[in-house]
């Protein structure tokens, strides 16, 4: 996916480097799908490169990237073989401790090393506490880049030690132009639905198209417009999601529901604002919990449908 909207972030980052007193920890904050992780990797390679020192293609020895590791030894063997593998739901403390051991050595090719944690808001509590020690006393020449879709989930003590680099949502028109260029097979109606569901995130827009969420979007719009007193639409929603959706599809479904509820806020009557706000908050919490807990897909679909129904004009909160 081509990246757009990163010009302000690059300007702030390069101004900081040129200033000569680079902060040791950065928090890259913004909604999912804006390309923050790609920015972090590109910026890290730029930072560790030194004049006259050849830089390797592919993985860089002075750029350490921590993300969700393989779920178990079987999945680890798949990763080593270059095959698709299942990941753990969180970044465990063992990953942070292994990284800290590497920091006891000097950088390989130059004087700087960058540690990227993507996404940092998926660290376990023990991992967050372990990372805090490194942020408090960073080794010389070591810099941290913490990618966060939900910065509020990070410890306040971690946030306070980071300089925040914010990534703003992308205008709808820019996302639509990007979809026209990169997904020409999508018709105007599909693009419009993807843009509306994306909420300013190009990644979410492409996910909408790749996950074929058009049917889900139609059902969600019907639920928020009409309610679902007999649970029939929720049943259709569960069937459309599928009996065994993967993590990406479930995350895209919850984000689509959140975007649909959020889109109601500007035109909602004052009396409906509390229900819209509550449903939106519940969907945000659900998005955070879904990767952690083993929800039954059918029950999760019913919960999503209930939250959508709760904002319908004729619905009552208790019906959800």
UniProtKB/TrEMBL annotation:
<dbReference type="GO" id="GO:0009360">
    <property type="term" value="C:DNA polymerase III complex"/>
</dbReference>
<dbReference type="Pfam" id="PF13177">
    <property type="entry name" value="DNA_pol3_delta2"/>
</dbReference>
<dbReference type="InterPro" id="IPR027417">
    <property type="entry name" value="P-loop_NTPase"/>
</dbReference>
<dbReference type="InterPro" id="IPR050238">
    <property type="entry name" value="DNA_Rep/Repair_Clamp_Loader"/>
</dbReference>
<protein>
    <submittedName>
        <fullName>DNA polymerase III subunit delta</fullName>
    </submittedName>
</protein>
<dbReference type="GO" id="GO:0006261">
    <property type="term" value="P:DNA-templated DNA replication"/>
</dbReference>
